[in-house]
Specification:
93 residues; mainly alpha
């Protein structure tokens, strides 16, 4: 892949992310963040155990990733399932 096509791919990704986030008001993002906090309190510990993590990841899993690189996929999945999906899902309502 040459540099020009990589730059075009990055531009397309940026435009698609902006298209996703632009029509959503800031208050909706805040409510989505509250939903993510609620999801973490309700199912966070259970999900961490199911993903093979020793405990709920702190700092979005950065500490777990630095100490045990084998847990990077689990920490990334936890971040998506607990933070990203509820935040975007509620904000898009």
């Amino acid at each position: 892949m040459n540099r020009n096509s990589l730059t075009e791919a990055m531009k397309r990704l940026r435009h698609s992310l902006l298209a996703l986030a632009t029509p959503i008001p800031m208050l909706a993002w805040l409510v989505g963040g509250l939903a993510a906090v609620a999801a973490e309190h309700i199912v966070g510990n259970l999900l961490a155990v199911l993903l093979g993590l020793p405990k709920i990841p702190v700092l979005f899993g950065c500490i777990v990733m630095m100490k045990t690189p084998l847990l990077i996929p689990s920490a990334a999945a936890y971040g998506c399932l607990i933070y990203l999906i509820p935040t975007v899902g509620v904000a898009r309502l």
